[in-house]
Amino acid sequence: MKQNTLFDKIWDSHVVRSIENGPDVLYIDRHYIHEVTSPQAFNGLKERDIPVFRPGNTIATADHNIPTRNQHLPINDELSRNQVEKLNENCNKYGIELFGYNHPKNGIVHVIGPELGYTLPGMTIVCGDSHTSTHGAFGTIAFGIGTSEVEMVLATQCIIQPKPKKMRITVNGNLGIGVTSKDIIMYIISEISTGGATGHFVEFSGSAIRSLSMEARMTLCNMSIEMGARGGIIAPDDTTFNYLKQLPAIPGIDDLGSAVKEWEKLRSDPDASFDRELEFDASLIKPMITYGTNPGMGIAIDSAIPEDKNNEGSSSFLKSLNYMGFKPGMKLLGQPVDYVFIGSCTNGRIEDFRAFARIIRGRKKAGNITALIVPGSKKVEAQMISEGLMEIYKNAGFEVRQPGCSSCLAMNEDKIPAGKYAVSTSNRNFEGRQGPGARTLLASPLTAAAAAITGRITDPREFITDDINKK
Question: 0.90 cut: is pTM over it?
């Protein structure tokens, strides 16, 4: 009997038709859209005078362009305002569920999908956003698509895709104090490079992965594409099912118990074959931080910048360091920074803000720091209020903004000025990603919190104990 991977089981069950010596026509269960990559797709439908094939399978939100202050007012930026208005117009026209600007369930698309119960094990999920891989944490095949493909899914509920190769990355052992899922994925990317998983869909497994919460798993899968993977996936287990059981409602599921029995089958067979396998020891991972202009340029926070570790090519490597104002052999500990950003679809969930609060509680924000603290959704914002986190932030001198993608990317007002350093919990540190000339250092919420209270790059383990780390 053929032994299949989890990826095979989901992919093969969604193939509508296979093109000989070519790609598959894949059925899509859930389609997420937002204001940036959908307008052109809807225009394509209008030009051909065709409807959205299954509007009930599409969920929309506004997130990339919206401001994170004064959301009770109209959006000032004309382009952003037009894109948000177009999303409203298109969703009304085609009968698509929209959690738009100022909606009580609004938020970043990859935050609200899971928290509203729209992301479920065994699904195929796409969105015109590269970090759709986030949803793989639930045991889904989830990946980003281009605008023309958004139009294809709207029109047919299918997409034409070649089946990726399969990779399994196993992480066994116990995580050390102050080490989070963000550090795990940054460590893996630093080891295999930003092209190390190109052409593959990655299944994450091992005791360290199973120990992670659902929100931590989402962070891990979110950044799987930063190593070139098509997406990341984790087999659903009791952690997954307990997360879903705590949701107020799950659209389309009347009998959760029966659904769980089916979802329990979603795992790779014992002798399933992968095209590539890698294994890492969790005990070797430390809090991580990037020093260059791609997510693979990362080091343990107490290490020195290497000599072209990932063979980027000396000119490219040195160009990246020159942009950042760093040199090989330099240590980042103690390097002054200007901004701290906590939020995004990578680290904008309630657990991230709890972790940030554990370090800043009873302390004060450094005077040289501008902090952008941005919840990933209205629900996360409400949780922060009800749990007293807002008061902790206020007492420490921080301002909490309103939900949105914010300073993850320079498509809204929350830009990092040229030449300034930002310790950011987002997912990309490309040149200009957070604003023209901005210098981004990716890190976990714990490392961001340590920087926020010291005003410089600081090892978060200085501020936490075993006790805090386990909460």
Answer: yes
